Amino acid sequence: MNKIVWLPIVAALWFFVSIDSFFTWNKYSFLFQVIPSMFVIAGSLSFRGCKNGMRTPQTMVVPLLLFFSYRLLQIHISSVGAFVIKLSDFLPLFFLMLWPKDYFERTYKIVRDVFLFYAIGSSIISILSLFGLLNGIPHFELAPQETLHVNSDAHYNIYGVFVVLTHTDTIWGLVRSCGMTLEPGHFSVYLGFIYLTERFLGKRINPLLVVGGLFTFSTVFFIIMFSTELVLFVSSENFAKKLKYFIFTPITIIFFLYIYAGLSSVNQESIMDKVYNRNLESVVNVMNNTGSLDEALNERASSANISLYNRMSSMEYLLGSETGLIKGEMLSDYRGMIVSVGILGICLSLVAYLSILSRTNRKHAIALFLAYLLVLVHRSWMLYNPYIYMFALMSVSTNPKAFIRRIPFAKKNKNHERENKIAAG
Prior knowledge:
Structural class: mainly alpha
Distance between the termini: 13 Å
Strand content: under 5%
């Protein structure tokens, strides 16, 4: 098989391992983490022209290298095997920067198509549960993968390749889309980045992608979608395009309200609970009463980790706490990142991310930056991992208006062109 075909597949596999997809939740997880990384690194070194022309400038490589090196120093690694796993998380991202643009584009297309497949399948699972048809479908169970889920007596039902997070005492009802991930909220972040990238590619959004985001019942997807559309709306100089926003936005809202009105009162209550009452209601109420962001975020955090954050010294604020967050206790907003890596870690992460954004046009960079801020406030621990930066790299690399140049292969570029023709069939 030609490497322009198999290398993007391997890179996509590494990506899905990095987001902790369900197929890694077993005793062979070490192999899943290490083997794709080795193939990405080996395949990257096979590019004959990479020595003379990196696809990305040093201004992108150095900040990422500094941040991930700092993160490795912060982690208490108990064994050589654990250290190898952490390296296998981070290293492929740097080698992927050696790839030609078309290899990177192929990787993104694979990632996008897999997410679309899971958006469709997970939506079907949610719709079946809405009408009480899920109970009779064969499935198998997996144990909870996080201490927080163990404490809440949760487990996973796997329907084919689609994950449902549920609780032992839950009677069948509307379930939220998880895709292949640990939680619906994680899935909504990933779908949000896919939506953003597709919009800046200038493509018509597949409505099934939006439906998949809808059935996560997570506000994250809708905030990314809304902020992306707002950036495009404000930056557009085309009156006809702006007029379409004014026409189709109300029509879309009315359409979903019409569907909601046609559901039974039980299903309406279930949807309202998952969309608003579950978490958002208490956050909004506290925000209105106190006017404090931290107090509002406390509604989604544990008192133990909040207390740990409040007791930190000035040096710990700068460099992070030596003990880190209390395991099994929640603090997923920006304060959790301060506890884990300190203000210095956040600054290094931000510089690394902005260095990627510097290679695209302004409106695309603004949309990606808003997505970064949302992750920082909502699920800051995602920024310790390579996949948020990989999302940004894929989004920038596939944008036709980005500034990234192809590798100058010089005389050996003919081999690369021949590979493209073979893959194109």
